[in-house]
Every structure is written in structure tokens, then in C-alpha cells.
Amino acid sequence: MTTTPETERLADQPSLRERVRVRLEKLIIDGEYPPGAHLVETDLAQRLGVSRGPVREALYQLQLQGWVDLRPRQGAFVHQPSIDEVDQFFQVRALLESEIASLVAGKITTEDVDALRAMIVAATQHIDDGNESALVEANAEFHGYIHRKAANRVLVDLVQVLDKRLRWYFSPVAMARAPEAWIEHRALVDALAEGDRARAVVLTRTHSERTHTAYVDHRRSLTADGDGQQG
What is the pLDDT of residues 52-80, one digit of tens each? Predict the structure, then answer.
């Protein structure tokens, strides 16, 4: 059977299931459905204006990607990462980010430095305004800019695979972590501009570890609050 151009174009369009999956993934990453939240198919279908079928299919795909846990006779729940899972994530992230910092140090232009410093100024304003969503976006933009300057497509692709998970971990601590984090960003830009590879690597590792610690502390505080309420 010969495939016509028209059917090729239709096949290229995202399915309804995929559009539902992308939307639910974003709602999870943005924290509208926090870890452990029960995802009720009927509620999701009503919210998204679709039938339960695409929602059920999207939840299955999200389970395969690690965003959702499907429990027999209980339903779907937003995945609650273990502390070990978080530790392993940040270990890999730090390795990739450090290699990128090593590659970029001394290679960025004056225009790159100006662009990164402008991002820092904008982020500082977001902190003053208490604009959490803009701050999370600014953080992703800052790191993404540096990633692209590594000029290593494979390395950049690998670290970008982790970006959604990083947003998920970073969002709950974005405002509390922000003042310190953006001071660290400023120091990193200085090291990259000066071509100080060793310092850039150390700063990158320290930055990643502090974000890691902030998230783990956040998780533990939630556990402590839950225990207190139960007692």
C-alpha cells in the first residue's frame, strides 16, 4: 500500500494520548500534583476535557517514564522518589555538569558572559518579586545556555534528559535556595570567563551538591511534619 503525503502528515501529528501525557507531565513537574498525590482518571479527564481512555493510556506511559506509580486496585499516584533515587540522580548530574564546565571554561565569548550575567540580573528580580515559576525557568535557561556552549552534542543530550527531573526536584526549594544559588551562578560565570577550569568544576560540583542537600532537607521536613500531625 502506497502511503500518501496526507497520511504522512496525519501520522506526524501528536496523538491525543501524547498531548494528555505531556500536559500531565508538566502538571507533575510544576508541583500541581505533588509526589504521592492520587491521580483520579475521572478528575483528570474532566480537567483536560477528554475521555478517560487517553488519560489511562497517558498514565501508563508516565509510569514507564518514572513519573507515576500504578497500584493494583488503588489507581495511579505521582511517583515519590526515594532518597537513594535522589542521591543517584544528583551524582550523575554532577558528573555531567562538571564535564561541561571543564569544556566551556575559557571558551565562552564576551557576548556569552554578558548574556549569562543578564540572566543573573533578571533572576535576582524574580527573587525580589517572589516569582517562583519565572525563577525555575530562569534557572533552566541559565544552565541550558552553558550546556550548549560545551559543543558536545552527546553530552548535552545526556544532561538534557535529566533536566525535567531536575526541575521537579528544584521547584519545591527554588525560592529558599535562590539567593545562594544565584550567587553561585555568578561565581561560576566568573570562573568560566577567566578560563579557570579547576575552579569551574569545583563550583559546579558544590552548586549541585547544595541543591541536592536542599531537596533532601525539604523531603525530611515534610516527613517530620507528617509525623508530627499524626502524633
Answer: 999 999 999 999 999 999 999 999 999 99
Distance, in Å, from the CA atom of 93 to the CA atom of 88, rounded to the nearest integer, reads 9
Contacts for 169 with CB less than 8 Å, ≥ 6 apart: 86, 89, 211, 215
- As a whole number of angstroms, the distance between CA 17 and CA 24 comes to 10
DSSP bridge partners of 69: 77
Element (H, E) at 77: strand 75-78
Q: Provide the phi-psi class of 49: left if phi over 0, else alpha when psi is between -120 and 50, else beta.
A: left
Cα-based angle 29, 86, 69 (whole degrees, multiple of 5): 55
- Topology classification of domain 5-78: Arc Repressor Mutant, subunit A (1.10.10)
The closest of 140, 35, 143 to 83, measured between CA atoms, is: 35
Looking at domain 83-230, what is its CATH homologous superfamily? GntR ligand-binding domain-like (1.20.120.530)
Cell of 42: 475521572
Whole-prediction pTM = 0.82
Asked whether the CA dihedral 81, 135, 26, 46 is positive or negative, the reply is: positive
Sign, CA torsion 65/71/76/80: negative
- The residues spanned by each domain of the chain are 5-78, 83-230
